[in-house]
Amino acid sequence: MTVETLIEHYGYPAIFIGTILEGETILILGGVAAKLGYLNLIWVMVSAFLGSLGGDQIYFFIGRRYGRRMLERYDYWKKRAARGRYYLDRYSSHITLTFRFVYGIRTITPFLLGMSNISTWRFVVLNTIGALVWIFRLVRRNGREGPKRES
Contact, 80 vs 29, CB < 8 A? Predict the structure, then answer.
């Protein structure tokens, strides 16, 4: 089995799972695979959108359900979280729209937002908007789908 065959067969699930865990690098690689003709750009975008949105929702609900309990276990985290919680509560809408554009905080921020005062529905709506903007921004920055390769 060649690398090309692996990409064609498992590319979309890999993008979906990869964007749950990390995001930007996976989407860029998916865009390259689409440009080379191994994947369809639209399905790369759909897979990345669903993975990113789904992962953020999972992290949010884990934070909502278990975050405060986890925080109470560690005094070091509790002290640092007090200042962070102020900013999360005050700027939760802005943070929800923009966190995925700041490298290094993408996976922890939805967890922390789950511990904030933002409503679940507000997070879902703003997170959906942020995920759409993120995907279209990355795709636009990295070019459009190239011609299909010949088999």
Answer: no
